[in-house]
Amino acid sequence: MNQVVLLIIIATILVSLKGFKDFSFFDTYKFQVGKILGGEKLRMLTSGFLHADWLHLGFNMYALYLFGGIVVNNLGNTSFLIIYFGSLLIASMYSLHYHKKEPYYSAIGASGAVSGIVYSAIMLYPDMELIMFPLPIPIPGYIFGVGYLLYSIYGMKKQLGNIGHSAHLGGAMGGFILTIVLFPQIVSINKTMILLLAVPIIGLLLFGSKLKK
Q1: Superfamily for the 3-211 domain
Q2: CB 94 within 8 A of CB 113
């Protein structure tokens, strides 16, 4: 495993373990709209290192392990870090914008950052095949990417489950935008796939405000 990816995984596990045991620590550094609008901007970053439980933590870190190496191997450590933390911040900003009238809305987890890495990896290898439980059928990466965004948009609209769909969307947008900024050649290399992956993001930017009930 790449050392930079490993360091992020270790740091996230250690901070999450602290949060599991110390409610005050957890409450101080989680994402909460009212606190952030009140000036505690650091929560937009620190919340990405906290998790609700072992399952939440394990799923995110496993996804980072699977896709992080693809981004590092193609773009390098510095670009990986820019995409990871940039996606985390964009995810937080999008969630803050979407839930700005809900002062007690809170969230935790690396899902936004990991979504950015997953989307970046799919952009780099749109034809990669992914098997998603419980379906034992390989799915091309670009279909998974579009489907993931559409599901997240639907989930945000319907408020499905205790899941930060807005963070997933914001993170994917961050991964998409930052990958193109850092590696603009990708547009000509995978032009059709990039345009396809861009459609739900453009739609979200144009009509995202209408998702509110």
Answers
A1: Rhomboid-like (1.20.1540.10)
A2: no
